[in-house]
Design a protein that fits this description.
Length: about 350
């Protein structure tokens, strides 16, 4: 059952993600939106990223106008870096829900403005392939890293003049193809060289695979890949008491800090990862079951416990997919104890809460 669902997920990705991706860009940038975005940029970002978006004004903040960054922007990578920041680096979170000065709309506009101002067209991308793993020899990749990358990115990926490549928030949700693109093309007008001209294609794969292997912690020797739990065994902490989520915001939302607290307290619940399964594979909250927003509703409803166990759904959008799943769980399934993670998994990861990687091929 699980196998079939996952294969369907990959199959449907082709048709659904293209639409989802453009929807995630939000409406087009209006002239007023552009004026406000430029103002926000100068007020909040120029200090580190430079008045002309050239980067490295402070804290070695990357360029926000390099072609290879802007063209490869998977819809969420740039936007959510701005929204939630990258915990452990000087890049803070700017969205109001984590105490920042910008609304989600401001951030969508800022992202569009960065690309339009730099006159960069996004690459035609096959989103189905976009989240695929890049296979490589991790041990050889470690060697490539030591020889070519350490001076700027640090022996532990902590970042020196280059960004913190070992940052879990960055790695957990940055697709392999985004990393590889930066390595091959470099970042124009910055110290990041284009290794496409220097390293063999297989060494670029190897170093990408090495970085990916650090995504749940730089010093872990091997990364345990989780397989989706079998049908009917979705409950986390089956012996635990019910979680105390307090009053849900808007009758639906639980914050990352409260969810983390209740998971640590080993409360009984089900976690649903409502993104495409390839994203569950990159990083997910431990114990979460991949039930994509386009899953067969009857099948999903039949697979969930009927004893009042809390069900928490999350996505990266940061709420749209999980909202839609919880809506049908409530309306069609009659599940009352349901909630949505307010910050989504991007927020969860960027705020420093733990994730594990999965293997959806099993
Ligand atoms: C205090 C300095 C500072 C400020 C202010 C700041 N940033 Fe950053 N930003 C950084 C640093 C440092 C990084 C790299 C973090 C890392 O090592 O991963 C970064 C990373 C980013 C990235 C990821 C780029 C990439 O190459 O993956 C984006 C996008 C970004 N910042 C946008 C913004 C925007 C937009 C603002 C204003 C709303 C802003 N930043 C404000 C320091 C800053
Ligand atoms: C001479 C310094 C330097 C070297 C050597 C270098 N980098 Fe970088 N790298 C940077 C800088 C600086 C950035 C940020 C780009 C910018 O300023 O816009 C960066 C960015 C990146 C990014 C994008 C990260 C993000 O957050 O978006 C990746 C991936 C990366 N480097 C990988 C590598 C790998 C792998 C190697 C070795 C094969 C390497 N780099 C070697 C300086 C370097």
């Amino acid at each position: 059952m699980t196998h079939r669902r996952l294969r369907t997920a990959v199959f449907l990705l082709a048709s659904l993600s293209a639409g989802a991706a453009s929807a995630q860009q939000g409406p087009a940038l209006t002239p007023e939106g552009a004026v406000k975005a430029e103002h926000n940029y100068q007020q909040y970002c120029a200090l580190c990223h430079g008045k002309e978006r050239e980067g490295h004004a402070n804290d070695h903040a990357p360029s926000l106008r390099s072609k290879s960054l802007l063209e490869s922007g998977f819809p969420m990578t740039i936007r959510e870096a701005i929204a939630y920041g990258r915990q452990g680096t000087p890049m803070g979170g700017y969205i109001d829900e984590v105490g920042g000065p910008l609304t989600r709309r401001d951030i969508v506009d800022l992202t569009l403005w960065l690309r339009e101002t730099a006159k960069v067209e996004p690459l035609e991308m096959d989103y189905r392939k976009g989240h695929d793993r890049i296979a490589g020899d991790v041990a050889r990749g470690a060697q490539v890293y030591r020889q070519n990358c350490v001076t700027c990115h640090g022996p532990e990926g902590e970042g020196v003049t280059g960004t913190a490549l070992g940052n879990a928030a960055m790695l957990a949700l940055t697709p392999d193809h985004f990393l590889r693109h930066a390595i091959v093309e470099g970042r124009q007008e910055t110290p990041m060289p284009a290794f496409g001209k220097v390293l063999s294609a297989s060494d670029i794969d190897n170093v990408t695979a090495f970085l990916r292997s650090r995504s749940t912690g730089w010093s872990t020797a091997t990364r345990a890949l989780r397989t989706p739990p079998p049908l009917g065994q979705y409950v986390i902490n089956p012996q635990g008491a019910a979680p105390d989520f307090g009053e849900l915001k808007d009758g639906r939302y639980v914050s990352a800090s409260v969810l983390d607290r209740e998971l640590r307290a080993q409360r009984r619940m089900v976690l649903l990862d409502t993104r495409v399964a390839s994203m569950w594979q990159m990083a997910h909250i431990e114990g979460a079951v991949p039930v994509p927003y386009y899953a067969n509703r009857e099948e999903a409803i039949a697979s969930l416990p009927r004893d009042g166990t809390w069900i928490v759904a999350y996505c990266e959008c940061p709420r749209a997919a999980a909202d839609s799943v919880v809506k049908w769980l409530r309306e069609e399934g009659g599940f009352e104890n349901t909630a949505v993670l307010h910050e989504g998994i991007q927020g969860w990861v960027s705020l420093g809460y733990p994730v594990v990687a999965g293997d959806a091929s099993k």
